[in-house]
Amino acid sequence: MKQSQLFAKTSKSVSKDEVSLNAKLLIKAGFVDKLMAGVYTYLPLGLIVLRKIQNIIREEMNAVDGQEILMPALTPKENWIKTGRWDAIDVLFKLEGAGDKEYALGSTHEEIVTPLVKKMVNSYKDLPVAVYQIQDKFRNEPRAKSGLLRGREFSMKDLYSFHADEADLDSYYEKVKAAYLKIFQRMDLNAIVAEASGGTFSKYSHEFQVLTENGEDLIFYCEKCFYGQNKEISEYKAGDKCPRCGAKMLEGKAIEVGNIFKLKTKFSEPFDLSFLDKNGKKKFAVMGCYGIGPSRIMGAIVEIHYDEAGIIWPTAIAPFSVHLLFLGKDDKIKKQCESLYNVLSENGIEVLYDDRDASPGEKLKDSDLLGIPERVIISERTFSDGMAEVKKRGGKEKAKLMKIDEILKKNLENRK
Ligand code: ATP
Ligand code: MG
């Protein structure tokens, strides 16, 4: 994509009411635009990143036999009354429609997915089944000052699994836990699996926590085996011995990026999601639910991967893999740049080409802000030898001079 045509503008400063680091960096670099507290528009660059995060999650959910569906965000009051959550969920956005009908904007979807699955399940032969969606959720969060970390409208992937018995839920739960760890690894996030409250019938739910100074949660975790517990429930204190491996437990601030629960029959009972077992006996399906927040993950990655000049995207979710910069005014140089851009693009390399009529200083500064992993510069300094300067964003190494052919070859190899 040519930067001169990009629907985005970088800015030097952001409004004073934006206090969070991730939102400041993302707004400055033109990835998102703030509509109001906790509500953001994804501009083209931001949307590419969000979609890449969602696609990694999608791949790993498909790999554990999750089937993707899309449920409505607008949901009827009756379903929430049935489970008592119309009043119990304090962040539920409630709406009035025509004819005194009331609705809620989905903050989570157990109330919708359970009666849906009931329509497909009659016998033990119909189980297990797992469905998920990637959709915007709505929560009337009292404090929405953390940018993408705490949205009032935000992206969530929610998976729901249904089983004939607890043993089957238990083994699937472990499979999803492993899939979640793989998701975070692919995005260069070190997630700690922390035990937390909120397990309805089991002792714990499991949160996936990434350590960072701006995290809203406090966790205890083992410095060696990374066993963890959320402080809210924890029987530990800093300095205690890890119950698993005996190493020291530390306390740290963290962001909860995912949360998985064993719900057992909490929702299948009120919605009568039952089936006939092998002996023809009626049983309630046993449920698990598994949430992960793509938009919060995007914010968390920015909180972790940045320097004083801007964002440093991990390769797997970067908006582009190469930022090609044309510096100077010479048309011959611009032509050379343009042809490298064309060859890279034709070969499926994701390249953003700064073809703008702007000063070198401005282009370099914007390139730092945008955080694309590799920068390739063609200028008067390099042009006559058919070379370009190549530099990793955020890397300590100096820029390397490389032949343009080699750059192409290297990128084609990386893509494999
Ligand atoms: P928190 O305790 O931070 O409010 P939660 O425990 O209520 O979050 P869950 O219901 O477990 O959140 O939601 C599943 C996932 O959705 C979370 O792990 C997080 O990644 C994401 N998420 C939850 N609330 C928000 C929000 N307000 N903005 C962005 N992402 C969110
Ligand atoms: Mg949670």
Give a quick summary of the entry:
The chain is α+β, with helices and mostly antiparallel strands and 416 residues long. Helices cover 30% and strands 29% of the residues. The chain has 2 domains: 20-307, 2-Layer Sandwich (BirA Bifunctional Protein, domain 2), CATH 3.30.930.10; 320-415, Rossmann fold (3-Layer(aba) Sandwich), CATH 3.40.50.
Element layout with pairings:
Elements: H1 21-28, E1 32-36, E2 39-42, H2 44-63, E3 67-68, E4 74-76, H3 77-83, H4 85-88, E5 93-96, E6 102-105, H5 110-118, E7 129-138, E8 153-163, H6 166-186, E9 192-196, E10 205-211, E11 217-222, E12 228-230, E13 249-264, E14 274-276, E15 282-284, E16 286-292, H7 294-304, E17 306-307, E18 310-311, E19 322-326, H8 331-346, E20 351-354, H9 360-370, E21 374-378, H10 380-383, E22 387-392, E23 400-403, H11 404-415
Parallel strand pairs: 3-7, 9-12, 19-20, 19-21
Antiparallel strand pairs: 1-2, 4-6, 5-6, 7-8, 8-16, 9-10, 10-13, 11-12, 11-13, 13-16, 14-15, 17-18, 21-22, 22-23
Helix pairs in contact: 1-7, 2-6, 2-7
The protein binds adenosine-5'-triphosphate (ATP) and magnesium ion (MG).
